[in-house]
Amino acid sequence: MKPKVTMIAWNQNDNYVVTAVNNHLLKVWNSSTGQLLHDLVGHADEVFVLETHPFDSRIMLSAGHDGNIFIWDITKGTKTKHYFNMIEGQGHGAVFDCKFSPDGQHFACTDSHGHLLIFGFGCSRPYEKIPDQMFFHTDYRPLIRDSNNYVLDEQTQQAPHLMPPPFLVDVDGNPHPTKYQRLVPGRENCADEHLIPQLGYIATSDGEVVEQVIGQQTVDQDEPGLEPSILDGMIRQLQLEQDQRTGADQAPSGPQNGEGTPRRG
């Protein structure tokens, strides 16, 4: 097999370059002389993740399709920590991406099974405040193409980027409580009434009919006690400003009643 480089990463102070090769080895090079310093052995499949520590020039993280995550000391060529992403009943999960936190005390990874893995020091209690399963209700909605070959959501016939913010649901499609719906960008300041999804029965690909979120409940904005949509308010404000500018442009510009030419602030 002809060796091929799959990933390259410089360490924090640029003294070293680490390359991942498709023979599952990691190689540490002197960036000034090009000298090979270490072969890092441990991965059993190709590596597509190399992340340097934000301030410690000795530390490099690697992860790959074999489910292994390694923390290396590249100055010594040794393993510091190792984690294997085993998923009960499903084998291992390939690791697709990893990132360090700015303070270097934590790192997060995503895998092929849709898991977010968070490693670090301290207590995991803060992460217990959110549900274990969080999906958007639109994640697996079918798409179609219109006559212009543009992509549309099959159910609503809308372009996906023009659809309202989705709802958070569990793996079975059951919506989470309203306090979690505010975590979705675009729903932070919505009234509680706008955070309750509309449920309906939908046939799955195998013919089974299940209850799922089909959209947002329609609420009359004119009803007393309900907060108006922030986006609607912005549209009204922009329309008002445009009307004012149009009126100013059409107003007579010459002096009136002996007054001088009006000045714009």
Automatic annotation (TrEMBL):
Mention any one GO cellular component term assigned to this protein in its UniProt record: nucleus
- Mention one GO biological process in which this protein takes part, according to its record: regulation of cell shape
Entries under InterPro entries matching the protein: Bromo_WD_repeat, WD40/YVTN_repeat-like_dom_sf, WD40_repeat_CS, WD40_repeat_dom_sf, WD40_rpt
Region annotation (Disordered) maps to 240-265
Tell me which domain of life the UniProt entry assigns to the organism this sequence originates from. Eukaryota
Looking at the UniProt entry, the stretches that span the membrane are none
The answer to whether the entry has keyword Repeat is yes
Task: Cite the entry's keywords alphabetically.
Answer: Repeat, WD repeat
Q: Where is the composition biased (Polar residues)?
A: 240-259
Q: Which Gene3D superfamilies match?
A: YVTN repeat-like/Quinoprotein amine dehydrogenase
Keyword Repeat attached? yes
| WD repeat feature ranges | 1-39, 40-82
Q: Which PANTHER family match?
A: BROMODOMAIN AND WD REPEAT-CONTAINING PROTEIN 1, WD REPEAT DOMAIN 9
Its name, as the record gives it, is: BRWD1 protein
